[in-house]
Write a structure and sequence with these properties.
The protein is mostly beta strands and 181 residues long. The chain has a single domain, classed as Sandwich (Immunoglobulin-like). 0% of the residues lie in helices and 41% in strands. The strands form 2 sheets. Strands 1, 4, 5, 6, 7, 10, 11 and 12 form an 8-stranded antiparallel β-sheet that branches. A 4-stranded antiparallel β-sheet has the order 2-3-9-8, with no helix packed on it. The chain is globular, with a radius of gyration of 16 Å.
């Protein structure tokens, strides 16, 4: 699915951003982003040892917001090309943000080839807090987004859908993708 720049964001060197979310055969939530751009004109953090980090949204990163349609709460997942990642839980819209204590780190694989940067993520829902053991997949509402920083330090905000006003990936109107088991 095509992500669109926010009306206040210039596409700049970005030609295309695509993202998808679906359950894999093993029950993991599979997230994919594909960025096509003049990568030399973007600030793409260099690869480092994968680790949890905060404030990744201040630079180039890919984001997923995941919600159970029967709950006001949701998850925020951030992935930087550096290999750093973040996972937060919210009780409701921008309320109660807390780092999620995952049993295992999300599995993220970055690929850079020519003018394309691709991220493939397997996020196991049974790694979330709660009783250990497998969890059956449930229907989810998902918002897929990207923050892209150009070589001048300007941030562009890309999403499947932008609600009115300033960029806000947390807004309920952003959760437009239905992911079914």
């Amino acid at each position: 699915m095509q992500l669109q720049p926010h009306p206040e964001s210039a596409a700049g060197p970005v030609r295309q951003v695509e993202a998808t979310a679906a359950y894999g055969p093993d029950g993991a939530l599979q997230l994919t982003w594909r960025l096509v751009a003049d990568l030399a004109r973007l600030r793409v953090p260099p690869a480092t040892t994968p680790a949890r980090a905060d404030e990744l949204w201040q630079h180039t990163c890919f984001e997923a917001f995941v919600a159970d349609p029967h709950s006001a709460g949701y998850l925020e997942l951030n992935f930087s090309p550096s290999g750093e990642w973040a996972a937060y839980g919210f009780r409701s819209y921008r309320t109660g943000m807390a780092p999620l204590p995952l049993r295992n780190d999300p599995r993220a694989r970055w690929q850079r080839m020519g003018d394309e940067l691709t991220l493939l993520v397997d996020f196991r829902m049974d790694d979330l807090p709660g009783p250990p053991g497998p969890r059956p997949p449930i229907p989810l509402r998902v918002a897929l987004a990207a923050v892209i920083e150009d070589d001048a330090g300007t941030l562009g905000y890309w999403a499947l859908h932008h609600p009115e006003g300033k960029p806000d990936f947390h807004h309920a109107e952003s959760f437009v993708l239905q992911v079914d088991p």
